[in-house]
């Protein structure tokens, strides 16, 4: 079974400071990892993904995430936060096993609040 | 930029009634999904659909639920006899393929309220 943990319900950061939103995962095979963002009354918007290759992946709006296989983590990062980054962030995983299905398993979400 | 659309944005129904939630996936996508998010909880997978049949479903997706692609553009989720606990935001998603190409694009959601 695959699972995702987002240990922080909320992360507060000052505008201009770096931000990190944490995610750890568990899968049987190789993980396919995703970050989505949800703004109020909107659907989930894709930010970035890790499939294979470089452990540091870059995505939309200046976000990046670092895959760490030994720590089974995929933390979302941004060097300089903006107030407009305030939203709900979801980490998701899919098991890369052949025949593992397409379903995404989501974490519980982390509310990011960026203040002036 | 192409996007997934869903109608209605909000549906209110009485317990025991049937509801149909509608989605128009991105036109060249081949895989379709429904997820739901109960208020304050995480997004949960319901079902995936490919080549006009269900490819995977969760334990939530019982006999009360069904999906259909009635024409070349719509993808629907039907709940036959709604329960109070079906109240949630329902998201439709689509992807062009599976595996490495399984970047799922989500619609804005339909908020279902069962009274």
Question: Could you characterize what this model shows?
Answer:
The complex is a heterodimer of chains A (116) and B (115). Chain A has 116 residues and is mostly beta strands. Chain A has no helices and twelve strands. In chain A, strands 2, 5, 6, 10, 11 and 12 form a six-stranded mixed sheet that branches. In chain A, strands 3-9-8-7 form a four-stranded antiparallel sheet, with no helix packed on it. In chain A, strands 1-4 form a two-stranded antiparallel sheet. Chain A starts with a strand and ends with a strand. The model of chain A has no long low-confidence stretch (mean pLDDT 91). Chain B has 115 residues and is mainly β. Chain B contains no helices and eleven strands. In chain B, strands 2, 4, 5, 6, 9, 10 and 11 form a seven-stranded mixed sheet that branches. In chain B, strands 1-3-8-7 form a four-stranded antiparallel sheet, with no helix packed on it. The N and C termini of chain B lie far apart (37 Å). The model of chain B has no long low-confidence stretch (mean pLDDT 92). The chains are: A mainly beta (116), B mainly beta (115). The A-B interface holds A 32, 34, 36, 41-46, 49, 51-52, 90, 92, 94, 96, 101-109 and B 4, 6, 31, 33, 35, 41-45, 48, 55-56, 58, 91, 93, 95, 98-100, 102-109.
């Amino acid at each position: 079974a695959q699972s995702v943990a987002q240990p922080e319900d909320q992360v507060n950061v000052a505008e201009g400071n770096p931000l990190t939103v944490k995610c750890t995962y568990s899968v049987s095979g190789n993980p396919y990892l995703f970050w989505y963002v949800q703004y109020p009354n909107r659907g989930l918007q894709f930010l970035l993904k890790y499939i294979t290759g470089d452990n540091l992946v870059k995505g939309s709006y200046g976000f990046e995430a670092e895959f760490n296989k030994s720590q089974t983590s995929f933390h979302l990062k941004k060097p300089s936060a903006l107030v407009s980054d305030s939203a709900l962030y979801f980490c998701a995983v899919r098991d890369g096993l052949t025949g593992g299905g397409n379903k995404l398993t989501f974490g519980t979400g982390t509310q990011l609040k960026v203040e002036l | 930029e192409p996007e997934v659309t869903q109608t209605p944005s909000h549906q209110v129904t009485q317990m025991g009634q049937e509801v149909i939630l509608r989605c128009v996936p991105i036109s060249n996508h081949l895989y379709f999904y429904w997820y739901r998010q109960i208020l304050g909880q995480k997004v949960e997978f319901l079902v995936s659909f490919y080549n006009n049949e269900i490819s995977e479903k969760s334990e939530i997706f019982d006999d009360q639920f069904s999906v259909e692609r009635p024409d070349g553009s719509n993808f629907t989720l039907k709940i036959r006899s709604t329960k109070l606990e079906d109240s949630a935001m329902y998201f439709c998603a689509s992807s062009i393929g599976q595996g490495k190409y399984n970047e799922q694009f989500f619609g804005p959601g339909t908020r279902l309220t069962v009274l």
